[in-house]
Amino acid sequence: MLYLKKYFTEGLIQFTILLSLIGVRVDVDTYLSNQLPPLREIILGPSSAYTQTQFHNLRNTLDGYGIHPKSVDLDHFFTTRRLLNQVRQLDRLFVPSTELNTWLVHRDSETVVSASSQSSPSITLDNGAGLDDVNSPDATPAMRGGSGAPESTYNLNAADSSLGAVAPEGNQEQGNRDGNDDLTKEDIDLIDILWRQDIDLGAGREVFNYSNRQKESEEEKPSPQENKDRNEEQESWRNGINLQGAQPVDGETGESIPEQLPGLGSQTSLSLQECLRLLEATFPFGEETEFPAPVVTPEIAVSNEEVPSTSQGLPLPQQLPSAEPQLDLEQQWQDIMAIMELQAMEVNNTSLQTTSSSVNATSGTTDSNTAGNFGLSTRPTPINQDVSLHQASMPSCSQDFPQIFNPQLESVSITPRTTMLRLSSSNSTNVNSTFGATNLTGIFLPPHINSSSNNVTSTPILPDPFSTLLEESMLDEISLLDLAMEEGFSQAQASQLEDELDSDSGLSLDSSHSPASPSSSETSCSSAASSSSTSATFSEEGAVGYSTDSEVATVETEEGAVGGYQPGYSKLCRMSYQDPSQFHSLPQLDSISHNHTYNLPLSSAFSEHPELPLSSGKKTVRDKQNSKLQPPQDLLDKHSSRDERRARAMKIPFSNEKIINLPVEEFNELLAKHHLSEAQLALIRDIRRRGKNKMAAQNCRKRKLDTIINLEQGVQDLRRDKARLLKEKMEFIRSIRQMKQKMQSLYQEVFTQLRDEEGRPYPPSEYSLQYSADGSVLIMPRGLTTAEQNRKPEKKQKDKKK
DNA sequence: TCGCGATGTCATGGA
DNA sequence: GCTCCATGACATCGC
C-alpha cells in the first residue's frame, strides 16, 4: 500500500504537470487526500469508483458534477487520459482499444436503442459533418457499412480476446519510439503503469459491464462539457502534447459510442482512419519528399487494426481538428470515397467483391466497415504491429489522390502537392515505376524511426505489390470491369470482352509463330540427276520411267536422309526461302536451328549428311509396300521431284538447282555451253519456271502467314489500347464527378454566406450563382434567363462575392 | 472413304 | 517482249 501511495503521489504530480500543459485543471490536494479509497477499491475489485461508469462517464469530471467525492480524482485521471488519448486520436488513425472492443460487444445488444439515439452532432464533432453525405454517391458504400455494425462488434470482440493486455506494451513501444520530446520516459512509464492498472488490477473488460454502460446511454446527448473537452483536446494538440502510454481508451469513439453507436460514429471515424492509412499507403512520396517529419510510430503507418492505438501524432491530421470547416471534411470524405472506388477496382483481387464487402469480409478487424469498402488492408486476421507496409494490399493510385488533401493540408507543405500532381499525371502503367520499392512508411515516418523500429518495412527485398497489379492483362480486366460497372454494360458483355482479351482471336495461330524456317531443299534439286545414268523413254509429257544403275543401292540410305524431316515443324519449315542469303535477313531465325535437309534431293541430302540414320521411322505403310513391290530405282524416282525425273530422263547435263537459281545471264551462258535439243531446252525452261514459281508460291504463302500473324497481333494491340482508353475514360469520368461534387459543395458554401444589402441571406429558391467566363461569380435571380445573363453580366457585379 | 492441310503447279497480272 | 515475281486456283499427296 505504501508503494501504491508513493507511486501514485509521484506519478500524479507528474501527471498533473502534464495536465496543466493541456489546460486541464487538476486539484492535486483533493486527489492525494482521497487517493487510497479508490485504489483500494481497485485492488479489491470493481466498485463504484472504478467501474465502467467511471471509465466512460468521463464527461462528468470536468463539468463540476463530481459523481463521487472519492472518485473525482480518479475521474480526473481517466479524464486526462481520455483527453490525451483524444488528442492523439484526432488524427483519426486510431483503432479502438481492447476495452472499447469489449464495450462494443455488449453494446451490440442495445443497438436498437442506441441506433435511434445516434446523434449527428456528435458525428459532426467527431469526424466532421458531411461525412455522412448521403447525397454523395461515393459516400454510400461507407455509409452502408453502418448496417454492418453488429458484425463489426463481433469482430471487435474477437480481436479483443486476442489483444488483451498486450496493449500497454504496444503503448510503451510506441511511446519509446515516438519522437515526442514533451514527455520524459518517466512520464511515459508512469502513464503506462497507470494504464496497466486498469487492466491488471481487476479492472478487466468484464468490469465494464452492461449496467454501467446503461448509465452512459442515459447521457448520450452531447453536453457542453463534452464540447469543452474536445476543445481542450484540440488545444492540447496545438500545444504539441502527445502523451505516451495513456490508456488507449478511445476518447472520442470510446466515449461517444454510447451516443453514436459503432454503427455510425465509430465507423465514420474508422473510415477516416482507413482513409488516412490509405493515403499513407498510396502516396508515392517516400524518401524523396520533403514532407515534414511527423511524430508517428511505425505501427500507425502499418496497421491500425490491432495496434492499441495511443500515440499517433500524425502530422497529416493535425489540420483536421483545428476548426476544420465542415466542408473540408465533407470534401475529404468524398475524395477518399472516390479513391476507394478507384482502388477497389484496381486491386488485383476480385474487386467487385471487395468493394461490396463490408464487415462480413473483414472479421477480426476493428475498423472493418470502411476497411472492407476500401478493399485493402482488410486482412482476415490481425496483423502484427511490425507488419510491413508492403504487406498491405496497396493498389495503385490514380489521379484522384491529389484531391485527398484538403486545402488546409495543402497549405502545410507544397511538396506533397507537387508529388501528388506528379502522381496524378501518371497513368496506371507507370505507377509501378513510380512506387517501385519506395518505402511507403517513409511518407510519414522519420527515416530513423522507420529504419530502426520497423525493419520489415524497410526491407527492400519484399516484392513490390504493384508489380503484379499492373499487368496488361489485369488492366484489361479492370477496364472491362469498369466498363461493366460504369457504363452499364451487361455482365454478359463484360465477360464477353474479357473472354476476347483472354483468348486468342479466331485468327489464332497457336504458338508456332516462328517465321518460316528456311529450307534449302529446293535449291539443290536433283543434283544427282545429271550424274545418274538413266535409260529413259519419253512419255507424252516428256517424263518417263527410267532405270538407274548406281543409285539403287542408296535408296534406303537416302530415305535415312529424309528421316531428318520433322513433320512437327514441316509446315513452316517447308515454306521457306530458298535462297540461303535470305536467311540472314530474318533475325528471328538466328536462334532457330532447323534441319533443312528434309526437303533436299535425295542424293544431295545424303551426300551432305551421310551420318543420318537410315531408318526414318516415317515410312508409311505405302512406302513399305512400295519398297517391296517396286524396284529401287522407282523408289528413287518417287523421292525425286517430277522435274528431276524428267531432267534425268532427258539427260540434262546440269542440276535443277542450277536451272532454277542461276541468274538469267549465267543461265543463258550455261545453255549456250551445252548443245541441247529443243526438248531439253523446253524441259529446262519449264523446270526453271516451275522451280521459281514454287519458290514464289512458298514465299507467297509465308507472306500470307506473316500477314495473318501481324493482323492478329494488331488486333491484340488494338484491344489492349481499347481497354486502356476505356480505363482512362472511367478515370476521367470519376474525376469529373468529383469535381462536380466539389463544385456543388463550394456552391453551397458560397451561397449560404452571401448576404444582401440588408444582411439577409439570399433564398436559394430565388437566386442562384452563375459563373461568368472571366471567372467571376454572380448571384442571379433564378427567373433571369441565360440570355439576359449574357447580355448584362455586369449588372450584378456588385453582388460578386469576394 | 472422306476431310483437311501441305505442297506443287498453272495461269495470270504487274513491275 | 522477256523475265521475275506475286497470287489465285487447282491438283496432288499424305495423314
From TrEMBL:
Provide the alphabetized UniProt keywords: Activator, Cholesterol metabolism, DNA-binding, Endoplasmic reticulum, Glycoprotein, Lipid metabolism, Lipid-binding, Membrane, Nucleus, Repressor, Signal-anchor, Steroid metabolism, Sterol metabolism, Transcription, Transcription regulation, Transmembrane, Transmembrane helix
Q: Write down the PROSITE patterns for this protein, in alphabetical order.
A: BZIP, BZIP_BASIC
Which portions of the chain have biased composition (kind: Low complexity)? 504-540
Is Oxidoreductase one of the keywords? Answer: no
Record domain BZIP: where? 683-746
Q: Which PANTHER family match?
A: ENDOPLASMIC RETICULUM MEMBRANE SENSOR NFE2L1 (PTHR24411:SF31), NUCLEAR FACTOR ERYTHROID 2-RELATED FACTOR (PTHR24411)
Renumbered to this chain, region (Disordered) spans 115-156, 210-265, 355-377, 491-565, 606-644, 781-802
Q: Which Pfam families match?
A: bZIP_Maf
Q: Which residues form the signal peptide?
A: none
Membrane topology per record: Single-pass type II membrane protein; Single-pass type III membrane protein
Quote one Gene Ontology molecular function term: DNA-binding transcription factor activity, RNA polymerase II-specific
Chief subcellular location: endoplasmic reticulum
Name the protein family: Belongs to the bZIP family. CNC subfamily.
**Gene3D superfamilies reported in the protein's UniProt record:** Transcription factor, Skn-1-like, DNA-binding domain
Instruction: Please provide, in alphabetical order, the Gene Ontology terms of the cellular component aspect for this entry.
Output: endoplasmic reticulum membrane; nucleus
The biased composition feature labelled Basic residues covers 793-802
Protein name, UniProt field: Endoplasmic reticulum membrane sensor NFE2L1
Per its UniProt record, what SUPFAM superfamilies does this chain match? A DNA-binding domain in eukaryotic transcription factors (SSF47454)
Kindly state a single biological-process term from the GO annotations of this entry: cholesterol metabolic process
**Organism this protein belongs to:** Acanthochromis polyacanthus
Q: Where is the composition biased (Basic and acidic residues)?
A: 213-236, 635-644
What is the annotated localization of this protein?
Endoplasmic reticulum membrane; Nucleus
